[in-house]
Amino acid sequence: MHKGSEENTHWKIADLDFSKINTAQVRPDENLFYLVACASFVESGSHLYTQNLVDFYGDEPEISNWLREQWEVEELQHGQALRTYVEHIWPEFDWQTAYRNFLNEYSTYCKVELLEPSKGLEMVARCVVEAGTATFYSALSRSTDEPVLKDLASRIAKDEVNHYKHFFRYFRRFRQNEGLRRHSIFGALRRRTLEMKNEDAACALRHVLGARAPQHADDQAMLQRIHSKMNITIRNHLSPDMTIKMIMRPLDLPHAVQSLVAYPVTQIMNKVFLR
């Protein structure tokens, strides 16, 4: 699809009718609060790693322009929409202050030296990240009966799948140019898959809890209980087959081999979502 066509048809926050939310019914759902608030922080911080990627692909104008003009714009829109949802239902939550504290810590995680050693392998890592976020938002959409969040999470999931398609297309270009072999690609897939839901989600939860319940800011047991409940919600609504196919796609395996590799990839995914 032509980039201009994609932009013209992309959804807007104004398409979401927050007035339809049954606030009295949703407000008591603390698990939902933490899921949406944490997601809003991570999405809103996307500008930090966008700059790293733009610099990394600075001699690839098609890629760097897409990152700036579409990918970053849509990621920040996700964050703004999720923030609007949180503030509509839980207006007492000081989102801006909590996010600022989160950003101060999160910025230390977004370093260019943490990118993969080649442009092609970093595209593999991007595919994993987009597969993971698409999986998360698809599961979030399935986990709730609240129609506005169900719609919003579904829209975000579709965006993440579209981002995945862009990164995969760019990966195929670099794979040929760099002569990437499957063992190198699998190494990048494994590394980034095991990093899913690691520092960013944990960092977001610490700062959301610190603002929501300051008296429990350093309560590691409470953090773990909240984290576990969030994980259970997502895990119970996963569609693992789709995720595994997306993650394995860069390997370009013959069909007969895919079933053999699917098992270790599934074990890695289980480790990610069970921890």
Question: How would you sum up this structure, described in words?
Answer:
The protein has 275 residues and is mainly alpha-helical. The protein has one domain: Orthogonal Bundle (Ribonucleotide Reductase, subunit A). It is built from 13 helices and no strands. It has helices spanning 3-9, 23-26, 30-44, 46-56, 61-89, 95-106, 119-143, 147-178, 182-195, 199-212, 220-235, 240-248, 255-274. Helix 4 packs antiparallel against helix 5 (61-89) and helix 7 (119-143) runs antiparallel to helix 8 (147-178). The longest helix has 32 residues, at 147-178.
Quick gist of this model?
The chain is mainly alpha-helical and 275 residues long. It is built from 13 helices and no strands.
How many DSSP helices? 13
Helix/strand/pairing category: mainly alpha
Give the second-level CATH assignment, the architecture: Orthogonal Bundle
- Tell me the fraction of residues in β-strands, as a range: under 5%
CATH superfamily: Ribonucleotide Reductase, subunit A
